[in-house]
Amino acid sequence: MAVMKFGGTSVGNASAMRQAIALVVRQQEKAAPLVVLSACSGITNKLVSIADAAGRSALDEAMALAGQVRKHHLDLVDELIKGEALKKELLATIEQFSLRLEMLIKGVDIVGELTERSRDMFCSFGELFSTTVFAAAMKEQGHDAEWLDVRTVMITDDNFGFARPIDELCEENTLSIIWPILKRGTVVVTQGYIGSTKDGRTTTLGRGGSDFSAALFGAWLNDDAIQIWTDVDGVMTCDPRLVPEARSIRVMTFSEAAELAYLGAKVLHPDTIAPAVQKNIPVYVLNSWHPDAKGTIITNDPARLSGKSYGGLVKSIAVKKEQCIINVRSNRMLGRHGFMTELFGVFSRYGISVEMISTSEVSVSLTVDEKSFSNELILELKGFGEVDIEHHVATVSVVGDNLRMSRGVAGRIFGALKDVNLRMISQGASEINVGFVVEESEVATAVSTLHREFFSDLEGSGIFEVPAGSR
Ligand code: ASP
Ligand code: MG
Question: Looking at the chain, which terminus has fewer C-beta neighbours within 10 angstroms, N or C?
Fold first, then answer.
């Protein structure tokens, strides 16, 4: 049995939904899958804007945006559903959700305060809409499918905006509610990303959380596979917008995928990995527009990892743009202890995540996301010594499990980059990545040079695939 998760672009409009339904039906011929959906692409962002507008008492703005959300789904119904009775029922449901959304806007507007709890309520509508339409469209085509409100199964803590599931409870619910429906051959269509506290308050698992939902369900159902359907041909050797020769990776390990996710690859939510790893369930990253392309399998299964589609020194090159380097230089560091604790205490107090670090005896260089940069932070850091800042830089990370055991990799990387101005370099002792920082204007050159260095001689090896879109 499988969990099939479709991302926002794979259910974003009528033709995407039709395509996704065809894939679900193909899977159903083997065994009925659990279908976990994102909101239609762009809708969650709109809901966030609606919540913010309501919180600022910009009532007209919020209502206008809510009108757009409503219209998007009404249009979808119009295109997908022809049967009169079903259409009427579905339109009534969409109106009901829309009405609730508007009531929420008015409530927040009156109170004049947007709490995390109400924000989650706003954000939950996207998935409720998309799954409702999807399930109805399946039924209209005569397929055996059932819509499920995931909030009866996905019970979480009350950490609104980043809720975590209560594992035993969810597993029990999954096995008693979802499993029997699947077993009799009926597809279950449900929402990713959202859940509920024990006392019935709607929660969300954090942005991009529907991958996590899918992985959790895969683990609770002890499935054979988790399929993440998206709009790219699996995990790529690098961003194809930067390097047109980018290839789709056939097989990668969980640690490579997790590392890549943390380092800026946009394909998977890092937390997705954990529940799947624990039960050793392979995660497939597939393109719903090119369903016959092989995509990427993320697994730790030794049989797969000894096959000829796994290999290569470098697996992928990840880039994070819009970073800045903060360099703190202080003689106080020399031979002292406790300096680092104090310094990083500042970042922790500001809730800023430090991405890359490199230190010498008298200076610490680190990168943070440009968005978390603030003058107050810098002022406080100046208490430690001289502070320099470099804006408009990007971190580039070369990732691969095999880097750990290989000699001469750093030489190859930095040899290839001899004409690039490296602003910072970082590599851990047992790490599977080597990272460096360059000015944003040099990212494209740096990445295509590295791509040529590590991937051009692997063409035709079977480790990578030419993405279906560029064949
Ligand atoms: N719809 C949610 C978001 O955009 C969850 C997801 O798509 O994974 O963050
Ligand atoms: Mg997503």
Answer: C
